[in-house]
């Protein structure tokens, strides 16, 4: 009975963690979501054409096709899907940890530490393909541990949703095959995995976006919604040494984990997997600290509480960042643009592009994919516009790139883009008759550029 109460309490805590950013986000029902990624995925869902199912799957991510079939509006999808899949993820992890023969304390600590990692909170409070792909990976692992041929079902679907996870699982299978050469289940599963990846790359009109990041942003304590907190890494190192035993299999697993962790610092798409691995060893490490004898018990209590509070503070920072990423005023301004008929583009910063596109149904010059797709020319042009010194050069850039509206939000004026009040583009917006302010709600100003007639 006691174990069931603890498990229920964990689920309630994690449920509250996942629902907190969405319930505290004022204007969520008015489509003020917690992340640009949610807007991007809703755009991709709404772009799916009414055509045969096999064509929809060929031309779109199966995740978006599935969302299109769900009888919910966009607000319901953005709220319910991450929440349900987040809870499902924790349940599947619990099943896996039980099969790994961890102690009850280690399982509880691992689940709590994983649910407090910035990457978990980010992935399961925003709408993104990993909402479905990651639980499918966990289900694949569970079925694989049971040595059942049904492993191929979630494996194939997972690969088509997130091929990077398919590649990681294939590497795992190859490692297993090297250790257990005569296992038929491994060989069959590996074959299915390779075939699925081959079909993805050869036949589908999809592609992988690997978002590279700056190492400094990952290693800064509490500095990234997609990162790991340093105390979690320290605890996992303690757990790793506590778990360590000599043996070929464990040596390979430890080496693979360390290598994968380093790679994940540069490829955010695989961090959720390694955050789970870190949390498992961190749970072992935390349990080791709790059970070991210290000469000074007060020092032990202070050290453990300090580590836990830092991890908790990291989660609070992540939630707070999500609450402030998109404001109600920015959504209001974007909706205002929806009432304007134009084929020209809107200029703003990259981190507002998808929100403006989704709410205004207008094309933006920059969005979150600009840097991912290495469109450096667009970034250079935007910088030339933002820091323009001559009106003639500014006019030429706006005309050549069909930019008619300029969306200025508060962070741009507070050091995000400019330092001074009349720096670059700001000077011309205030003093040139070719720019007319058509919207202002204190946090956002929208200007219309009027091309000068010769």
Structural write-up:
This protein is mainly alpha-helical. The protein has 23 helices and four strands. A four-stranded mixed sheet has the order 1-2-4-3, sandwiched between helices. α5 (74-99) packs parallel to α8 (130-145), α6 (104-115) packs across α15 (271-291) and α8 (130-145) packs antiparallel against α9. Residues 205-223 have low confidence and may be disordered.
Sum this structure up briefly.
With 454 residues, the chain is mainly alpha-helical. Helix content is 66%, strand content 5%.
Order of helices and strands: HHHHHHHHHHHHHHHHHEHHHHEHHEE
Structure classification: mainly alpha
Sequence of strands across the biggest β-sheet: 1-2-4-3
Tally of DSSP β-strands: 4
Number of domains: 2
Mean pLDDT level: 82
- What low-confidence regions span 5 or more consecutive residues with pLDDT below 50? 205-223
Beta-strand portion reads: under 5%
Distance between the termini: 83 Å
**Rg over alpha carbons:** 25 Å
Helicity level, as a percent range?
55-70%
- Biggest sheet features: 4 strands, mixed
- Give the overall silhouette: globular
Number of helical regions: 23
Properties at a glance:
Rossmann fold; 2 domains; 4-stranded mixed sheet; 4 strands; 5% strand
Question: What is the topological layout?
Answer:
Layout lengths: L1 H23 L11 H11 L6 H7 L2 H8 L4 H26 L4 H12 L2 H6 L6 H16 L6 H10 L1 H17 L4 H20 L11 H5 L10 H14 L4 H17 L6 H21 L5 H29 L2 H11 L6 E3 L5 H8 L8 H4 L3 H11 L4 H10 L2 E7 H7 L8 H7 L3 E6 L3 E6 L5
Parallel strand pairs: 1-2
Antiparallel strand pairs: 2-4, 3-4
């Amino acid at each position: 009975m006691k174990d069931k109460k603890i498990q229920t309490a964990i689920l309630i805590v994690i449920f509250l963690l996942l629902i907190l950013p969405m319930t505290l986000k004022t204007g969520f029902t008015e489509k003020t979501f917690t992340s640009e990624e949610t807007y991007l995925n809703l755009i991709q869902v709404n772009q799916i054409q009414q055509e045969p199912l096999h064509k929809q799957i060929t031309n779109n991510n199966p995740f978006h096709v599935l969302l299109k079939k769900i009888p919910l509006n966009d607000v319901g999808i953005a709220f319910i899907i991450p929440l349900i899949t987040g809870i499902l993820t924790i349940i599947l992890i619990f099943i896996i940890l039980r099969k790994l023969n961890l102690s009850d304390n280690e399982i509880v600590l691992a689940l709590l530490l994983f649910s407090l990692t910035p990457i978990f909170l980010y992935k399961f409070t925003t709408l993104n393909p990993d909402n479905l792909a990651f639980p499918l990976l966990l289900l694949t692992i569970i079925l694989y541990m049971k040595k059942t041929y049904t492993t191929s079902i979630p494996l194939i679907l997972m690969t088509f949703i997130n091929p990077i996870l398919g590649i990681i699982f294939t590497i795992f299978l190859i490692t297993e095959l090297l250790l257990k050469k005569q296992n038929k289940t491994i060989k069959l599963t590996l074959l299915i995995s390779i075939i699925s990846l081959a079909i993805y790359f050869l036949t589908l009109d999809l592609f992988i976006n690997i978002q590279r990041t700056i190492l400094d942003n990952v290693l800064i304590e509490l500095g990234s919604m997609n990162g790991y907190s340093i105390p979690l890494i320290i605890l996992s190192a303690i757990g790793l040494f506590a778990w360590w035993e000599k043996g070929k299999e464990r040596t390979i697993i430890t080496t693979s984990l360390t290598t994968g962790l380093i790679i994940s610092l540069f490829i955010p798409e695989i961090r959720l997997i390694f955050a789970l691995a870190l949390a498992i060893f961190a749970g072992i490490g935390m349990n080791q600290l709790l059970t070991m004898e210290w000469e000074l018990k007060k020092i032990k209590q202070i050290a453990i509480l300090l580590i836990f509070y830092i991890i908790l503070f990291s989660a609070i920072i992540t939630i707070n960042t999500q609450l402030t990423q998109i404001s109600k005023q920015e959504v209001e301004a974007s909706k205002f643009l929806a009432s304007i008929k134009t084929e020209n583009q809107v200029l703003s910063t990259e981190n507002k592009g998808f929100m403006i596109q989704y709410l205004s149904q207008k094309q933006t010059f920059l969005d979150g994919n600009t840097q991912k797709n290495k469109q450096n020319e667009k970034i250079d042009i935007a910088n030339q516009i933002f820091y323009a010194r001559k009106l003639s050069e500014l006019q030429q850039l706006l005309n050549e790139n069909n930019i008619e509206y300029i969306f200025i939000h508060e962070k741009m004026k507070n050091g995000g883009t400019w330092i001074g009040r009349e720096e670059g583009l700001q000077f011309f917006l205030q003093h040139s008759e070719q720019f007319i302010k058509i919207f202002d709600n204190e946090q956002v100003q929208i200007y219309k550029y009027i091309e000068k007639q010769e």
